[in-house]
Design a protein that fits this description.
It contains eleven helices and three strands, in the order H-H-H-H-H-H-H-H-H-E-E-E-H-H. By secondary structure, it is mainly alpha-helical. It has a three-stranded mixed beta sheet with strand order 2-1-3.
């Protein structure tokens, strides 16, 4: 079984290969991340790896310790790069380093799989996520405090019908693991592929109001 660092690197390289196929206008289309284009998401994925720990601490200090503001600052910095440079950066930093290597590289893997889908789903280009990567990303979501997933999982049981992953107790939500991952990460686009008595609860959290 590959370790999480290897899986994260494979995911980043696969995304780089996919980005190489995009037409110029596709880079500027909206992603599933509110306010971010496909290009912005591609820039965000590597924005912490390139900083190193001193740069990371400085970035968080400038942001007032706000993850959202730090993320946005990284995206804005990445907009100075060409699309070829963004793809090259993904390949150069395929092996996670710095903060994205935290928790055995679970941060990089989970972030990479989710953001790959933020791009793929927005462009209408589905893929089958390699099962080992998908199962590992799902396994990390209950403790991924930078995501809404821990709160979204509260009081429900989720079952990935394709990769043998389950978590929690309560009314059940079941469906393909990729759709579960996307929905648990706060993307409503995954909900239509799920079912079960707990789906209304999850949907209310992902689609508040």
């Amino acid at each position: 079984m590959a370790n999480l660092s290897d899986l994260a690197a494979e995911e980043r390289r696969d995304l780089a290969d996919y980005l190489d196929t995009l037409a110029p206008d596709e880079w500027d289309r909206p992603s599933l991340c509110a306010g971010w284009t496909v290009r912005d998401v591609a820039g965000h994925i590597m924005s912490y790896d390139v900083l190193g720990w001193p740069g990371l601490l400085a970035a968080f200090a400038r942001s007032g310790l706000s993850l959202g503001r730090a993320n946005q600052a990284g995206v804005e910095a990445s907009r100075r790069l060409t699309t070829d440079q963004l793809v090259a950066r993904l390949r150069t930093y395929a092996v996670p380093r710095g903060i994205t290597a935290s928790f055995g590289c679970a941060v990089a893997l989970t972030d990479g799989v989710i953001h790959h889908q933020d791009i793929r789903r927005a462009l209408g280009r589905p893929r089958t996520v390699p099962p080992e990567r998908l199962a590992a990303a799902l396994a990390s979501t209950p403790r991924a405090r930078v995501l809404p997933a821990p709160a979204n999982l509260r009081g429900i049981r989720v079952v990935a019908t394709d990769v043998g992953w389950t978590h929690g107790t309560g009314p059940e939500v079941r469906g393909p693991g990729e759709a579960l991952l996307v929905a648990l990460a706060g993307r409503p686009e995954g909900l239509d592929e799920l079912d079960g008595p707990g789906l209304d609860t999850l949907a209310a959290r992902v689609r508040p109001g």
